[in-house]
Specification:
Helix 5 packs across helix 6. The chain is globular. The protein has four domains: 278 residues, no CATH class; 79 residues, Immunoglobulin-like, CATH 2.60.40; 144 residues, Sandwich (Immunoglobulin-like), CATH 2.60.40; 69 residues, Immunoglobulin-like, CATH 2.60.40. The strands form nine sheets. Strands 1-22-21-15-14-25-26 form a seven-stranded mixed sheet, with no helix packed on it. Strands 17, 18, 19, 23 and 24 form a five-stranded antiparallel sheet that branches. Strands 10-9-12-13 form a four-stranded antiparallel sheet, with no helix packed on it. The longest helix is centred in the N-terminal third of the chain and has 14 residues. By secondary structure, the protein is of the alpha+beta class. The chain is built from nine helices and 33 strands.
Length: 625
Amino acid sequence: MKKLLFPVILFSSFIFAQAPAGYYDGTTGLTGYALKSKLHDIISAKNISWHYGDLTNYYNQTDLDVYYDHDASNTTLLLDMYSEIPTGPDAYEYTTANLIGSSSAEGLGWNREHMMPQSTFYSNYPMYSDLFYVVPTDARINQLRSNYPYGISMTTPSNVFYTFTNSSKIGKSAIPNYVYTGRVYEPIDEFKGDVARSLLYFAVRYEGKLGAFNFNNNSNPASDTNPLNGTEEKAFDDAYIAMLLQWHTQDPVSQREIDRNNAVYAIQKNRNPFIDHPQWVNAIWNQTPDNVAPQAPSDFNATQISTYFTTLSWLPSSSSDVIGYKIYQNGTLVASTKSTSISIDHLLPSTNYSFTVKAYDNGYLLSPDSNVISVNTLASDVYAKDLFISKYLEGTSDNKAIEITNRTGHPVNLSDYRLSIQFSSTNNYYFPAPYELEGIIQDNEAFVLLNPNANFSCYTNDEAKFVTAAPQMTYSGSQYLELRYKSATVDAIGIKSQSNFSVLGNVSLYRKASINQPTNSFNINEWDIHSSNYCEDLGTLSASPDIRFVENDTFKIYPNPVQDRIFVSGKTENIKIAQIIDWSGRSIITEKLPFKNKTNISVQNLQPGIYLLKLDDKTYKLIKK
């Protein structure tokens, strides 16, 4: 059957129109890895991660075959890239009812295929259930593909191990210039572009986590099945990127991909940018790096030293092709950043550390070391040693929410944090794969994880930082939950391996304002207990107990939250001192006689978060957007 395609000439104007207005704001003029990072920020914000079990029904919206063999008005049959025969009738077809676990032959049923094998990301959420590369395919072919990469197969019969009904095959790799010589799965030409754009989406969506995924884990590269190369920017090995770019070019975006992109957006609230803007593939990856190492960054110093962290800053390298910086702690790589400052955390009190920084360019050449600095952490300070769970809501039905607060004194990169839950089955306790957090949380900021089917009267999906139906957000009040940093428990709700801890059911627990440190041992005395579905001030920091906010005062403070300037009206002429104070008690802004000749205080340079506005002896809560 003929495939329904829009002419290639229409791609630029037509495809852009598929994305909502403003969706790709900020990308104009960007190329290379700067464009890739901007796209990551766009498609990672405010999306919904569904449960793996939800995908089966969603395929009725995203993957019906209305393009080859069937009429769009009545088909319930799935489009399977592994078995579809574009030029004639398929050997077999499935509805979502034909889901099976395993199969001994083609045509017996389908299951969910991770185009990027789930072993890459240890089956963790949100990667585990991302509709853009988790697709319905024949169960037998899915099994045989295993975790082999997509690729170009040899054609000699002795090197082709399986040929399937639509002529896709598993054979020995013939990817040009690629060190891997093991088995690959080669899809038919009709879907090679679809595969390439799905894998490139993965590289953009999970930038910031790619270096921690399972890659190059074999001492023999010729047998290493994972084409990731450990970098956050390029993502894949050179030869593999070259193949994906070739597939992207030879099989342009189809109407089926456009429709699927829109359908997934309706469900997941993010998009594949390479379907909307195919030209961005070459704009990002078709670069020619030089072979000259960049200049070293200079004036490396510690701008803040605390008990559990230090903030480092430096002047940028003078080389124009620098894309990031690597930070070394006692000679070991501990972090990378695109910025010229970073907070290194999880340090020990009263301990000496040495740090250096190197620049790296788009060819991944490293500069020489910066100057070495020595940091002696403090014995104690006013900050929390780590993030902590500040609210736990276990309401009716799917009304589940977790709030996490940062009072560490510095911005925190969430990429190494996970939310884990313990389930039980016939008295056996186990932890399913965790839900991984991502992004940056500012100091004195709280964020919320919310079940997408929640129906709180005072909080919505749009307000939450993370919206997920992963197992971690399906608790019923009898499960133990914990916030982890890497594999270490940071903070806990409930008691491990105990399912009758009834205090967690049908309640909203709010951490007492006097508690500002996490603990890996749950203590109900640290929490205020409210009724089920109570969600007042969810996502907003609570005040410290020693601070009294003014109510029904003669001053009016507005706008609050504030963007640029905070205005104060009333009898302001007698105010002697105005201060903006963070939650550690540190004064950020101080003005004497602040309203002698004006009515506002500028907060343009204030970091987003929650602060105290003190006007002489009166204190107000101030939220900076």
